[in-house]
């Protein structure tokens, strides 16, 4: 996995998530290991993760195409048809 600088949107989302955690801490709500995370904080984390995974998927699809992989094989790896993969990631390659 490669590292890169976070985009402005990513930094904003991360900052909002951090502020939410800080607000909870200041309110006396300290997480205990294994305790559940408040749903809104978890939704913010998932939104960030979804964007990160989408970017990584696009990068890997482009790398697979550069390596000569067919849309059929890429689709199989993603659990979609070749046409579905081609339509979704055509611009990534």
Description:
The chain has one domain. Helix 1 packs antiparallel against helix 2 and helix 3 packs across helix 4. It has 93 residues and is an all-alpha fold. It is built from 4 helices and no strands. The chain is elongated. The chain is 68% helix and 0% strand.
Shape: elongated
- Major β-sheet, in short? none
- Tally of contiguous helical segments: 4
Q: Structural class of the secondary elements?
A: mainly alpha
Helix fraction bin = 55-70%
State the total count of DSSP E strands.
0
Unreliable runs: none
Attribute tags:
93 residues, 0% strand, elongated, 4 helices, mainly alpha
Question: How does the SSE layout of this entry go?
Answer:
Blueprint: H1 8-26, H2 39-66, H3 71-78, H4 82-89
Helix pairs in contact: 1-2, 3-4
A few lines on this structure:
With 93 residues, the protein is mainly α. The chain contains four helices and no strands.
